[in-house]
Amino acid sequence: MHMSTTPIRSEIFDTGNPEIKSARIVIDASAQKIFNILKDPKRHQEIDGSQTITENISGPTQLTLGSKFGMKMHLGIDYRILNTVVEFKDNELIAWRHLGRWRWRYRLDAISDEKTLVTESFDGSFAPVLSKIWLRMRKAYPWTQKAVAKSLVRLKAAAESP
Question: Is the dihedral of CA 152, 153, 156, 161 positive or negative?
Answer without folding.
Answer: negative
